[in-house]
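Form P-L/3: holo structure prediction, ligand FE2/S2 (inorganic) cluster.
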Amino acid sequence: MIASDKLPTTPPLTQVWQLQVRAIRLQAHGIVSYELADPDGHDLPVFEPGAHVDVLAPGGLVRAYSLASDPRDRSHWLLGVLKEPKAKSTGGSIAMHEHVRVGQLLTVGPLRHVFAMATQAKHTVLLAGGIGITPLKSMAHELVHQGASFELHYCARSAQHAAFSAELLALVPPDRLHFHYDNGDTSQGLDIAKLLHSHAVGTHVYFCGPAGFMKACAASSAHWPTGHVHTEYFKAPDSASVATLAGSFDVILTKSGERITVGPDETIVRALELAGRRVPTSCLSGLCGTCKVDYLDGEVEHHDYILSDDDKKTCLTLCVSRALSPTLTLDL
Ligand code: FES
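OUTPUT (holo model):
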């Protein structure tokens, strides 16, 4: 990953809404929820379960947060934000926890659907680790609405670290909801390998959580059929790296005709920025889709964690992707 390329992010947001913070609740140790609604009481846009939104946090940082509310309830959206320790935080969660108050207006949007649910699943396994419950909670709402077959496993350090527990207990039938508390010792938690060892035909699994949890889930589901394993990473996996930094290439912006060189040690986002073309970004790690654009020509070396094989034929993430061809023509 090109960590040195991080930029302060105050991009122009499109498809945004000014939403009012209607309620703030402490959901678990270090986790606060924010209930957002239209200040005039209008319905909010429909979203698909697993969606996330960009939020312009106090101080000008844009951060992506999953929507944890019922996708069919258009009266409000619900975010869950874990306050990262200062040493690990890039500032977004601290700004949200320390500076957002009830009644405040927040700039929110656009909606992004990069962790979409399969429509033909015969059974669904939802696997949440810690704050990873947020997108999976919206999926649980939808699966309950559909009367679909599913199970939800929620792994946390303790009951005090499990957010939205009361809502989940009210929502999900007890035989489908499983809390796993490890008290800080992962060997005492859910045996993920055992859970994912076998599965009925037509089962889809979704997992979201911290790095170690994701690694265990990915390793334990490696034998599952392609397209049946769905992930949302909060951070790029430790092993991630941009393998081919050597060499520069040019991007051609089709709308303006500009040609901009991307150096061997910089990202497309950075090269565009240096040329005076700021594009919306958030994670800068290929995780959120904020910088996704279409390309019209060239061969892309993808390094994101969100685009499907089909998506990769037409679009790329500017923050991590590079070119395998001398030029890339972007729909910019
Ligand atoms: S900024 Fe998140 S994928 Fe590029």
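COMMENT: The pocket of FE2/S2 (inorganic) cluster is lined by residues 281-284, 286-291, 304, 317, 319 (CB under 6 Å).
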